[in-house]
Amino acid sequence: MSKNFRNYLFVLLTLATSDAIATTVVFLPGNWEGQAPQSLEGTGEKPYELAKLGQFYATRIYSVQIKEQLSPNSDPEIKDFLIPQVSREKFKQTCSRLKPDYVVRDQLSIEEKIRIDRSVYDCNLSKMEEYSIIGRKDLFEILEKLTKDSFPLVPKKKVKEYSREPVRAAKSQIIVLDSSYSYAPERKEFMSQLEAISWQPETKFRLVVFSENGSKVFPESTRSELIKQWKDFKSEGKSNTQDLTNALLRLRRILSSEDSPGKKKERMISILTNAKASNSIAGYGAAIEGLSLIGAKVSILYSSYAGPEARREHKEAAKRGAEFREVSYFQKIVTPRDSKTLVFKEGKLYSTGASPDSKMKIEDSALEKVEFSGKYSLGEFLNPWSLGSIYEEVKKEKILTSEPVRSNFAFLFSNSVSEASNSEYFGNFPKVLVKSGSKAFWIRVPNALGFSEGKKGVWAVTFLSSSFSSEGVEVIPDSLERYTFSTAKILECDPSVARNYLRNTEKFKFDCLVKGEILEVSQP
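The chain above was modelled as a monomer; its predicted structure follows.
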């Protein structure tokens, strides 16, 4: 390496790290062949979309300034790049006209796999570098990886890595699921939550099903495989606590046989059931204790269908090493006298003029107990999904209209699996309500400065899976940046878009663009 070149390289690195002089980059329209989102097909926007994607990842990863030249109106010569291959001379001419440090152009091919060929022309060194990457069908992941290697002389931003420590115990989320006919509504809610919540990438899953006809412990699998396992399994018979005990004993034998020295696995077991009593408190409790002794964290999410004896068995068994949670049910009704909310909680029926909050809670002081009579006097023959019918029969009062029964199952389940969530990233931050298209949603922000009602803008954000959010995802406040460049359509997002991406790819995070108007600012 010559002395002059070493001196030049030193100056280049010094300038690149200076706050006063930032590296400037021009992304030229690229060449996009193969599949594309419907919103881009037939519009002529694919070359520009590719450049906007490049700009996004460059600004997320590096301390660079973008010189945008993405419109024929602002740069008539831009049409010269709307061809598959562009000569080196065209890159040099762009350097002369626009005076950037780098000129970049991508060629994208999407067939069975994705391939991106990137040309990066260093205007200072008059040197062209070529980069290529091939990957599976996740364009965002591939572009991010490619961008991390594309500018070796440009300093990367000091960005917090939103992932767990590299050395940590493997996680196993085990779902012990009641397969009796009567538990069908709760199973449906469970499946929707399983699909909605995005989980930590190191988490594996295992399904255990039980009823009076026996039990089955499935092999450890991915979430998508677990979903398929359950969809292939049919409801059957009834269930009681002895059936559940047998399933837990079987599970412990299998888990013990899989353990090996030096390979500790962090296991979370969620028992979802409405199993009736069977006078097996000792055996049920011993099974819970046995799972705790091999290091499993056990929780019971119980739905009361069968009176006080069943509840007592579940609560007593939980004392041997499990966290006990009980589902509550709510239904709004209108009678000839008034409107009210029926609440079925801990085996008792209440009425109230209040409505449940966002976490499906109502203060106990607002509840008025409805005394059972007739066949319900012992707290049996109860189906919480038929609250209106029970109320009519007990109170002899006709219900004119009613809303569907709701429960706090989803909230309790998300908390029971919080060991596999990422709550440490979501602190006590201000929130803003953003209206994007037809949707409105809350996101956390580092501070409320710069956010006011009516303000419109675009923000680059990182969504992370969160079992504490009803959406299953949340924006990490520290990730949020105002985005001032042209937005790639396929990067515009809201919580549902982020959730679907994380669910379909089983990724840990999603970087994208939130575009909208601030409707409200809320301090913590």
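Residues 421-522 form one domain.
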